[in-house]
Amino acid sequence: MSKRRVVVTGLGMVSPLGNDVETTWSNIIAGKSGIGELTRLNKDDFPASAVAELKDFNIEEYMEKKEARKMDRFTQYAVVSSQMAVKDANLEINDSNADRIGVWIGSGIGGMETFEKQFEIFSKRGYRRVSPFFVPMMIPDMAAGQVSIAIGAKGMNSCTVTACASGTNSIGDAFKVIQRGDADAMVTGGAEAPISQMAMAGFIANTALTLNQDVTKASRPFDQDRDGFVMGEGAGILVLEELEHAKERNAPIYAEIVGYGSTGDAHHITAPAPGGEGGVRAMIQSLEDAGINPNEVGYINAHGTSTPYNDKYETMAIKEVFADHAKKLAVSSTKSMTGHLLGAAGGVEAIFTVLALKEKILPPTINLDTPDPECDLDYVPHEARKKEVKVAMSNSLGFGGHNATIVFKTYEE
Questions:
Q1: Whole-model pTM over 0.85
Q2: DSSP calls for 345-371
Q3: Tens-digit pLDDT profile for residues 100-124
Q4: Which of 22, 373, 27, 355 is nearest to 216 (CA)?
Q5: Using one digit for the tens of pLDDT, what is the confidence trace for 342-389?
Q6: Domain boundaries for CATH 3.40.47.10 within the chain
Q7: Nearest residue to 263 via CA among 394, 169, 163, 159
Q8: The CATH fold of domain 260-409
Q9: Catalytic amino acids?
């Protein structure tokens, strides 16, 4: 069976660097940080104060307050970003095509904020005062569910929950749905709103978060002085479409998605396998799926969390996969500017990877002031780089030993 070609025709995003794709991308290329002091919670309750919150985001600009109150923040972010992506793709969904358009949106932890608020109500006032919307607001699949309702998509509707790989796995899974012929278009990516008391407490307890009080310098992937990641929030959504379907309606085409790899470490619940062994296999799988030689890849948007083990092992994995070509690759971590959006990271970073191909400019890794000798690749330090590349890769690695890689290439007839 021949594989159907799949292209990216729409992009939508809300992020710590902007409430749309254009603003976020402009700030990424300018090397600006979206990280600041914790404002949503009492920062004095936590030793970690650096977070990447959305700024000036008002959900009532996008939907009725009555509807918004039935959604956790992560679902709100997904709905808004999905509507942006569908509009960007000029995709009209109606009775004639709704059952051939699906939604696949991942989230690492879903409605953590809703859970906390409703448990507090239960503790103080009893079960009768718990909201009837508690469960449908909390469960991670509700981003996909609410998006399908909002845009009228009646095709395959799913959610991948693989921690910090959720967004990338969702995009890869949606890609395969179209490739095998089960849908003509998929609205896909990741959404997360984890800036809550228990999420902060939990990640601090397992020593994952940075305690750096200089917040704009707190996320420093591949730097010798890195000490943990910065938690961020938002959503990144793409419209993937079968090529002929996109061409028939003269859709804009950003890039082609050509490869997907997904593996498990079978090693540890939080620590990556030594040497990034699972990541090695995911990257190799994605390249084999794409039918692309490793030497053709010009840019990698790394997982690059700014944690000691991840950055070291991901570097080792890239060198294992690409051998001598690894030194010629441009690699960057946009988490240096956005923070770590957990299940949404793969969604926003896929968008950055696609735009790097289309706009012929590679995002930088900021705060790389003291390079770690064990992290010795070209991480595009400090400033974006104008460079045309034909093939680019995005990596995501998650707690539980989840590894996911997707490969994009410049679209050609």
A1: yes
A2: HHHHHHHHHHHHHHHTEEPPBTT--SB
A3: 999 999 999 999 999 999 999 999 9
A4: 27
A5: 999 999 999 999 999 999 999 999 999 999 999 999 999 999 999 999
A6: 7-248, 260-409
A7: 169
A8: Peroxisomal Thiolase; Chain A, domain 1 (3.40.47)
A9: 164, 303, 340
